[in-house]
Amino acid sequence: MAKALVGTSGWAYASWKPRFYPPEVKAAGFLRHYAGRLRTVEVNYTFNRLPSAKNIADWSAATPPDFVFALKASQRITHLDRLRHPADTLPPFWEKVAPLGERLGPVLFQTPPWLKRDDDLLASFIAELPSDRRCVLEVRDPSWYVRETYEILALRNVALCHADGERAPSPLETLGMTADLVYLRLRDERGYNEAVLASWAARCAGLIASGKDVYAYFRHDDDGSNGLAAERLVTLLAALLSSSA
Known about the structure:
Helix 6 (119-126) packs parallel to helix 7 (147-155) and helix 8 packs across helix 9. With 245 residues, this protein is α/β, with parallel strands linked by helices. The chain contains 9 helices and 9 strands.
């Protein structure tokens, strides 16, 4: 059965006390506490710096075996080389993150907002992606949102990210169109009230019913409200899925 994993973009936020983290939890214990409440996290740290062996060991020690880390790919791949030379830029990244083992979830390749549609570039890039990894592409220029892009992504089961609240999110109808997973970045700075969360829960439940795994990550806000929103979305989704079982 398809599944849903919901979390936030990062966890290391002292400002999330006391709304999400209790006052007594020290910074070193944030991830362990987080992993006791949510089953996945999106790591943006890996965009700026490849993780060290110690990073991987610390993350693994603080989380249960079924916890999932979704990683943002290195800026070397997406912003400096802009998807060119993937045979050179991809292997160092995969080598560094491989020790996560079963904890390694989808990898998000987020292109710069000024990168416009280029079918040949996209095809040559995804041809180098490993078939045994779940990969996601977030493009931020509307020129990409055409049938040709979707067909190229579908050839290698690469998901098209939907970034709610951003300047140019992918069309909602593309959710689940290109891969066996759905990847949502819930970034609206206005926050997510009960009605909006219920709407997302219904949409995600439908995608799960169609056989798509759903990964959803709320933006890192100032006070931890989005951590609570992530937990609420988990609860709403569980209720919908149990009622339809």
